[in-house]
Amino acid sequence: MPQSVTASVSGLTNGDLPRRLAVTLAALAIYRAGGRIPLPGVDTAQLTQHLSGGGLSGSAAAMTSIMALGVVPLLTALLLAEAAMCVSPQLRTWGTMPPGHTHLGRGVVIGALLLAALQSYGITMALEAVPGIVTHPGSEFRAGVTTSLIGATGLVVWLAHWITRSGLGSGFWILLAATHVAAFIGPLLPQLPLLAQGAVTAADF
Questions:
Q1: Which of 70, 83, 104 is nearest to 174 (CA)?
Q2: Residue 76 CB coordination number (10 Å)
Q3: What is the pLDDT of residue 178?
Q4: How many Å apart are CA 149 and CA 37, to the nearest integer?
Q5: What is the DSSP string of 99-144?
Q6: CA angle 61, 65, 69 (to 5 degrees)
Q7: Which of 74, 75, 80, 78 is nearest to 154 (CA)?
């Protein structure tokens, strides 16, 4: 039985469900709150206007928040680690042992942070290429955005570990599911008043 599932079952048998549920909800709340903190030096109003003018959809606030990368760096690092273990059976065997598992986990975290740094650089270049989006382009802006995104990735790793250790289920998969659920529900929320008034029906979605 996976470690995260074992921990959750143990918590349930000990009557610890409320605490574990509270930890999971708190971690999700922190994750969602990070999506509302804008990157330093980005004019979200100008970005919203630019996206609207280009006929593009999406939330400018989410696209330029410190959580813009979400779980992508961690997911990529995990996939790379899994690919390496598929290529090398010795690495997989080493990774199943306690010392190897610990070192492998640290390697995944370091890899996620390095990937976040690379992706951050690409984001800063893309933002600076759009006129009026960045208030003060230059090295200071790039350093601020890169630091923010790397720090947010570190926070995502910590939240995933916190949920796995003290919450319900696997932290990584819960954060990944939360990202997709939020992206699906978000566009529907403005339609709820119309649905209640009968102006739209379920068939319109």
A1: 70
A2: 17
A3: 87
A4: 11
A5: HHHHHHHHHHHHHHHHHHHHHHHHHHHHHHTSTTTBSS-SHHHHHH
A6: 120
A7: 74
Determine the 3-state secondary structure of 14 from DSSP. Answer: coil
Q: Which two tokens stand for residue 120?
A: 């951050």
Amino acid at 15: G
Residue with tokens 């942070």: 113
Report the distance separating Cα 67 and Cα 148, nearest Å: 9
Over residues 76-133, the pLDDT tens digits come to: 999 999 999 999 989 888 888 888 888 999 999 999 999 999 999 999 998 898 888 8
Which tokens sit at 117? 């740094």
Residue type, 6: T
Residue type, 28: L
Q: Which residues contact 51 (CB under 8 A, 6 or more apart)?
A: 57, 58, 60
Q: Given pLDDT bands bounded at 50, 70 and 90, which one contains residue 60?
A: low
